[in-house]
Write a structure and sequence with these properties.
7 helices, 5 strands, binds FE2/S2 (inorganic) cluster
């Protein structure tokens, strides 16, 4: 299993700073996921060895965090919050709009691999509800019409 030099530098720095190797698990998984696209069996085995945990322990951590995935996702992972604040301000309509526009349901990925869609719990942007997170970017105070514009923008970016 070979990661980039950037990954290796980050990993080396983290291992130096955390009191135990296992403390570096979640950020290491995130860096690996950003680089490979998802946490494959090979990635899990490699990281488990590096932080001195069993593969089962690593899988248990992955299953706890919704931002970590063992399945390939689209280039842009659209996470629509339908928790209480967002639900009251139109989160479910945004989700319906995304389903319609992308032609996929919860945890689905478009055939071109550009988008995946997820309905998620609170993403910590309640004051600006309804909110959507695409990869690491937040989009707030959305309506179905502005949601369309957000998706158009990513589509344009992804196909350039
Ligand atoms: S309820 Fe949607 S961001 Fe908190």
């Amino acid at each position: 299993m070979k990661f980039s030099q950037q990954f290796e530098s980050r990993f080396a720095e983290m291992i130096d700073h955390y009191p135990t190797k296992r403390s570096a698990l979640v950020p290491t998984l995130l860096y690996a996921q950003d680089e490979i696209g998802y946490l494959s069996d090979e990635v899990i085995a490699e990281i488990a060895g590096r932080v001195e945990l069993s593969e089962l322990e690593v899988r248990n951590v992955i299953s706890y965090y919704s931002m970590l995935t063992t399945r390939p996702r689209g280039k842009y992972n659209v996470q629509v919050c339908t928790n209480i604040a967002c639900m009251l301000r139109g989160g479910e309509e945004l989700l319906d709009q995304c389903k319609k526009r992308l032609g996929v349901g919860h945890k689905g990925t478009t055939p071109d691999g550009l988008f995946s869609l997820e309905e998620v719990e609170c993403i910590g942007a309640c004051s600006w509800a309804p909110a959507v997170q695409v990869n690491y970017d937040f989009h707030e105070n959305l309506t179905p019409a502005t949601m369309d514009k957000v998706l158009d923008e990513y589509k344009k970016r992804g196909t350039q």
